[in-house]
From TrEMBL, chains A, B:
This is Alpha/beta hydrolase. SUPFAM superfamilies: alpha/beta-Hydrolases (SSF53474). Gene3D superfamilies: alpha/beta hydrolase. Keywords: Hydrolase. GO terms for molecular function: hydrolase activity. InterPro entries: AB_hydrolase_fold (IPR029058). It comes from the Bacteria. The keyword Hydrolase applies.
């Protein structure tokens, strides 16, 4: 892990860009406690997974969340670019699946299982070991301790991580419906506390499929927050509600 | 409105029992600001409607919520006994409807519309003017100002109040399914912000009916918080989530 840039932001949060092999990422850490106070304890970490649109494009959204967590709750937060997003190399099968998805959605046709599987399953296979490698590197920094929370991004990546990565003790998901049947089955194996957001009139996600996925999660500590409006209309107050969820489980 | 008892509780909250005509009630108000501070401004008010089990029986639950609102958020909170509950006179048709409900639920039969209508509609007709009279009396006290929130109790009473009482600017409901079809229609006329709790495995409420009711509310500012477990299993952290909802709309 190599830091490539560093800036202290006006809320005191330190933002550092890094690379992990070929993968770019960003780390936000809270301002150190003022001089007379004892040195800050290692901060709990929240992994903020981006949507597959490229870090540069989603930077404002991600940085807004990360800085809030760091400045208001003393959490560290980090993200890395997903495989095939931003400047990272694409692969032919994913490009084909994306083109197929666009085609059927523009035609108003239902999205078939083959398209969802082709789009999501290879992405999960590639992304999960990368997030685990990032976790290794981040937890090796003296200013970051456990426990670890995970949120956002492609929900199937989060489901797999919640099942296979014991260092993640709580997760916040945005309920989506482009979830392969196989991942739906994995959801039953999730036993960590979950905080799930649902947009009631999400133009890109089927409401009943999202409710079915919430129902499928194996954990008994799961809460659904449903709000009105479309995919990008999550109310501002949900940022703090999510932070409080993590504060209950990471402190 | 006559106060019949008064005690200062150990969190500084003042608890006063009162009668409004024949109706018993309880008012909780926050501790006054300590001496050097300016006199406290009139507190916003939250009406906490009880379930129809009698105030004496549900006192611990209600007082716990009211004292939290008063001590942590500076809200006043008040409740009154529902018609036909506690020591208040019953009426024959309601007793018959309750007996019918018990019978079909014990037999595991579906609860028919006639039973729900007979149980709920007269209760709404009787209760709503009483809550409005209580609101008149409470808002006449110098220590209480607007705006007013409403929460809890029989959801149909809350729906009617949210539609007809303009002084109520936000409401917290516990999603139930024993809702007359007529009240379902009134739900479409609710335009104030709503905070709705749903217990996912509620033994006394049908999940789909509760989701349909949430969907029916006319307001665009509505949030559903669904948690696992049965009717009485609402997690402790939802108390503060509800308080924050009221803080956004009553301050």
């Amino acid at each position: 892990m190599h830091f490539t840039s560093e800036q202290r932001l006006d809320d005191g949060v330190l933002e550092r860009e890094f690379t992990l092999g070929e993968i770019p990422g960003i780390l936000w850490t809270p301002a150190p406690a003022p001089a007379p106070a004892p040195a800050s304890a290692p901060a709990p970490l929240i992994l903020i997974s981006p949507p597959p649109l490229g870090l540069r494009k989603v930077y404002p959204r991600l940085a807004g969340r990360a800085r809030y967590y760091a400045a208001e709750y003393g959490f560290a937060a980090a993200t890395i670019e997903l495989p095939g997003s931003g400047d990272r190399p694409r692969w032919a099968a994913a490009e084909q699946a994306r083109a197929d998805l666009r085609r059927v959605m523009e035609a108003g046709e239902p999205v078939g299982d083959e398209i969802i599987d082709a789009l999501i399953l290879p992405l999960v296979e590639k992304a999960v070991p990368e997030w685990q490698a990032a976790l290794d590197a981040l937890l090796a920094l003296p200013e970051i301790g456990g426990p670890v929370g995970y949120e956002g991004g492609v929900i199937s990546i989060g489901i797999r991580l919640a099942v296979v990565e014991p260092r993640i003790v709580a997760a916040g998901f945005f309920a989506g419906s482009l979830v392969p049947a196989a991942m739906f089955e994995e959801a039953r194996q999730v036993t960590i506390p979950l905080h799930v957001l649902l947009q009631w009139d999400d133009e890109g996600n089927d409401r009943q499929a999202a409710l079915d996925l919430f129902d499928a999660f194996g954990t008994q500590q799961k809460t659904l927050h449903a709000n009105m409006g479309g995919h990008t209309g999550v109310p501002q107050f949900e940022l703090d509600a999510g932070a409080r969820f993590f504060a209950r489980h990471l402190k």
